[in-house]
Amino acid sequence: MKKMLNQSYGGTNPAAVSPLANSAFTRRRLLRGALAAVIAVPSSGLLSAGRRQLFERSLKFYNVHTGESIKTVYWALGNYIPDALSEVSYVLRDYRTGEVKTVEPGLLDLLHRLAIKLNIRQPFYLLSGYRSPATNAMLAAQGYEVSVNSLHMDAMAADIYVPGRSLSRLHAAAIALHGGGVGYYLAADFVHVDVGRVRYWRG
Fold this sequence. Notes:
This protein is α+β, with helices and mostly antiparallel strands. 32% of the residues lie in helices and 21% in strands.
Protein backbone atom coordinates (compact mmCIF):
# COMPACT_ATOMS: atom_id res chain seq x y z
CA MET A 1 0.00 0.00 0.00
CA LYS A 2 1.85 2.97 -1.24
CA LYS A 3 1.39 6.33 0.30
CA MET A 4 3.15 9.66 0.15
CA LEU A 5 3.02 12.67 2.42
CA ASN A 6 5.04 15.74 1.55
CA GLN A 7 5.46 18.11 4.49
CA SER A 8 5.14 21.81 3.70
CA TYR A 9 3.21 23.53 6.44
CA GLY A 10 2.57 26.94 4.95
CA GLY A 11 0.33 28.76 7.42
CA THR A 12 0.03 25.90 9.88
CA ASN A 13 1.47 25.57 13.34
CA PRO A 14 5.15 24.58 12.83
CA ALA A 15 4.92 22.40 15.93
CA ALA A 16 2.33 20.15 14.26
CA VAL A 17 3.59 16.59 13.85
CA SER A 18 2.66 14.18 11.08
CA PRO A 19 1.06 10.91 12.25
CA LEU A 20 3.34 8.84 10.02
CA ALA A 21 5.40 6.38 12.01
CA ASN A 22 7.38 3.17 11.58
CA SER A 23 4.71 1.20 13.43
CA ALA A 24 2.13 2.31 10.88
CA PHE A 25 4.43 1.24 8.07
CA THR A 26 4.86 -2.19 9.65
CA ARG A 27 1.11 -2.67 10.04
CA ARG A 28 0.63 -1.59 6.43
CA ARG A 29 3.15 -4.18 5.23
CA LEU A 30 1.39 -6.91 7.18
CA LEU A 31 -1.98 -5.89 5.76
CA ARG A 32 -0.56 -5.79 2.27
CA GLY A 33 0.68 -9.36 2.72
CA ALA A 34 -2.73 -10.50 3.90
CA LEU A 35 -4.41 -8.75 1.00
CA ALA A 36 -2.06 -10.40 -1.50
CA ALA A 37 -2.86 -13.80 -0.03
CA VAL A 38 -6.61 -13.30 -0.29
CA ILE A 39 -6.68 -11.90 -3.81
CA ALA A 40 -4.37 -14.41 -5.42
CA VAL A 41 -4.72 -13.96 -9.18
CA PRO A 42 -4.17 -16.13 -12.22
CA SER A 43 -0.75 -16.59 -13.81
CA SER A 44 -1.10 -13.27 -15.61
CA GLY A 45 -0.58 -11.59 -12.23
CA LEU A 46 -3.05 -8.88 -13.17
CA LEU A 47 -6.02 -7.78 -11.10
CA SER A 48 -8.66 -5.66 -12.77
CA ALA A 49 -9.52 -2.31 -11.22
CA GLY A 50 -13.07 -3.54 -10.73
CA ARG A 51 -11.98 -6.60 -8.75
CA ARG A 52 -9.43 -4.63 -6.75
CA GLN A 53 -12.18 -2.28 -5.61
CA LEU A 54 -13.83 -5.25 -3.91
CA PHE A 55 -10.81 -5.61 -1.65
CA GLU A 56 -9.45 -2.11 -1.15
CA ARG A 57 -10.33 1.55 -1.54
CA SER A 58 -7.74 4.23 -2.05
CA LEU A 59 -7.64 8.00 -2.46
CA LYS A 60 -5.21 10.74 -3.40
CA PHE A 61 -5.31 14.29 -2.05
CA TYR A 62 -3.29 17.45 -2.56
CA ASN A 63 -3.82 20.22 -0.01
CA VAL A 64 -3.42 23.49 -1.91
CA HIS A 65 -2.79 25.46 1.29
CA THR A 66 -0.05 23.33 2.84
CA GLY A 67 1.48 21.68 -0.22
CA GLU A 68 0.97 18.24 1.31
CA SER A 69 -0.03 15.28 -0.80
CA ILE A 70 -1.16 11.82 0.20
CA LYS A 71 -1.93 8.58 -1.58
CA THR A 72 -3.27 5.88 0.68
CA VAL A 73 -5.42 2.78 0.89
CA TYR A 74 -7.89 3.66 3.64
CA TRP A 75 -10.12 0.55 3.49
CA ALA A 76 -9.20 -3.07 2.86
CA LEU A 77 -10.75 -6.49 3.35
CA GLY A 78 -13.95 -5.03 4.75
CA ASN A 79 -12.38 -2.68 7.29
CA TYR A 80 -11.28 0.92 7.52
CA ILE A 81 -7.57 1.27 8.32
CA PRO A 82 -7.09 3.45 11.44
CA ASP A 83 -3.59 4.61 10.48
CA ALA A 84 -4.79 5.68 7.04
CA LEU A 85 -7.78 7.55 8.49
CA SER A 86 -5.39 9.39 10.81
CA GLU A 87 -3.12 10.35 7.94
CA VAL A 88 -5.98 11.58 5.77
CA SER A 89 -7.47 13.49 8.72
CA TYR A 90 -4.13 15.22 9.22
CA VAL A 91 -3.96 16.37 5.60
CA LEU A 92 -7.61 17.49 5.75
CA ARG A 93 -7.07 19.39 9.02
CA ASP A 94 -7.92 23.05 9.61
CA TYR A 95 -4.77 24.54 8.11
CA ARG A 96 -5.37 27.89 9.82
CA THR A 97 -5.32 26.51 13.37
CA GLY A 98 -3.65 23.13 12.92
CA GLU A 99 -6.62 21.40 14.56
CA VAL A 100 -7.29 17.83 13.44
CA LYS A 101 -10.63 16.00 13.58
CA THR A 102 -11.10 12.43 12.43
CA VAL A 103 -12.62 12.48 8.97
CA GLU A 104 -15.99 10.82 8.52
CA PRO A 105 -15.21 7.56 6.63
CA GLY A 106 -18.38 7.98 4.59
CA LEU A 107 -16.92 11.14 3.06
CA LEU A 108 -13.92 9.15 1.85
CA ASP A 109 -16.24 6.52 0.40
CA LEU A 110 -18.17 9.24 -1.43
CA LEU A 111 -14.98 10.67 -2.90
CA HIS A 112 -13.81 7.18 -3.81
CA ARG A 113 -17.07 6.59 -5.70
CA LEU A 114 -16.68 9.95 -7.40
CA ALA A 115 -13.15 9.09 -8.51
CA ILE A 116 -14.36 5.78 -9.95
CA LYS A 117 -17.32 7.38 -11.71
CA LEU A 118 -15.09 9.90 -13.52
CA ASN A 119 -12.07 7.58 -13.78
CA ILE A 120 -9.99 10.12 -11.85
CA ARG A 121 -6.43 8.95 -11.32
CA GLN A 122 -4.89 12.23 -10.18
CA PRO A 123 -5.38 13.67 -6.68
CA PHE A 124 -8.37 15.61 -5.52
CA TYR A 125 -7.15 19.16 -4.91
CA LEU A 126 -8.44 20.17 -1.48
CA LEU A 127 -9.45 23.73 -0.66
CA SER A 128 -11.21 22.95 2.60
CA GLY A 129 -11.64 19.81 4.66
CA TYR A 130 -12.13 20.05 8.40
CA ARG A 131 -12.94 23.56 9.60
CA SER A 132 -12.87 24.35 13.31
CA PRO A 133 -15.84 26.24 14.82
CA ALA A 134 -13.50 29.21 15.45
CA THR A 135 -12.42 29.30 11.80
CA ASN A 136 -16.00 28.92 10.59
CA ALA A 137 -17.13 31.82 12.76
CA MET A 138 -14.21 33.95 11.56
CA LEU A 139 -15.07 33.32 7.91
CA ALA A 140 -18.74 34.09 8.52
CA ALA A 141 -17.78 37.37 10.24
CA GLN A 142 -15.66 38.29 7.23
CA GLY A 143 -18.61 37.85 4.90
CA TYR A 144 -17.73 34.51 3.37
CA GLU A 145 -20.57 32.24 2.31
CA VAL A 146 -20.34 29.64 5.07
CA SER A 147 -23.12 27.94 6.99
CA VAL A 148 -23.29 28.42 10.75
CA ASN A 149 -23.91 24.67 10.93
CA SER A 150 -21.34 23.75 8.32
CA LEU A 151 -20.58 20.05 8.00
CA HIS A 152 -16.94 21.05 7.57
CA MET A 153 -16.95 21.42 11.37
CA ASP A 154 -17.85 17.73 11.66
CA ALA A 155 -15.19 16.62 9.15
CA MET A 156 -18.02 15.49 6.89
CA ALA A 157 -17.37 17.84 3.94
CA ALA A 158 -14.71 18.75 1.43
CA ASP A 159 -14.29 21.52 -1.13
CA ILE A 160 -12.46 20.06 -4.11
CA TYR A 161 -11.47 20.34 -7.75
CA VAL A 162 -9.40 18.24 -10.14
CA PRO A 163 -6.95 20.03 -12.45
CA GLY A 164 -7.70 19.36 -16.08
CA ARG A 165 -11.21 18.13 -15.33
CA SER A 166 -14.36 20.10 -16.04
CA LEU A 167 -15.88 21.53 -12.88
CA SER A 168 -19.33 21.07 -14.41
CA ARG A 169 -18.69 17.34 -14.93
CA LEU A 170 -17.38 16.98 -11.40
CA HIS A 171 -20.51 18.71 -10.13
CA ALA A 172 -22.86 16.59 -12.25
CA ALA A 173 -21.16 13.36 -11.21
CA ALA A 174 -21.36 14.28 -7.52
CA ILE A 175 -25.10 14.96 -7.86
CA ALA A 176 -25.62 11.65 -9.66
CA LEU A 177 -24.20 9.75 -6.68
CA HIS A 178 -26.97 11.04 -4.37
CA GLY A 179 -24.54 10.75 -1.47
CA GLY A 180 -25.23 14.04 0.32
CA GLY A 181 -24.96 17.76 -0.26
CA VAL A 182 -23.37 19.17 -3.40
CA GLY A 183 -22.53 22.84 -3.90
CA TYR A 184 -21.32 24.36 -7.18
CA TYR A 185 -18.98 27.34 -6.80
CA LEU A 186 -18.04 28.25 -10.36
CA ALA A 187 -16.45 31.62 -9.57
CA ALA A 188 -14.25 30.10 -6.86
CA ASP A 189 -13.56 27.00 -9.01
CA PHE A 190 -14.57 24.21 -6.63
CA VAL A 191 -17.30 21.75 -5.82
CA HIS A 192 -18.46 21.16 -2.26
CA VAL A 193 -19.42 17.60 -1.33
CA ASP A 194 -20.63 16.32 2.03
CA VAL A 195 -22.34 13.31 3.54
CA GLY A 196 -25.24 15.16 5.12
CA ARG A 197 -28.76 15.10 3.73
CA VAL A 198 -29.13 15.20 -0.06
CA ARG A 199 -29.44 18.79 -1.27
CA TYR A 200 -27.99 20.94 -4.04
CA TRP A 201 -27.11 24.62 -4.38
CA ARG A 202 -24.95 27.08 -6.26
CA GLY A 203 -22.63 29.58 -4.60
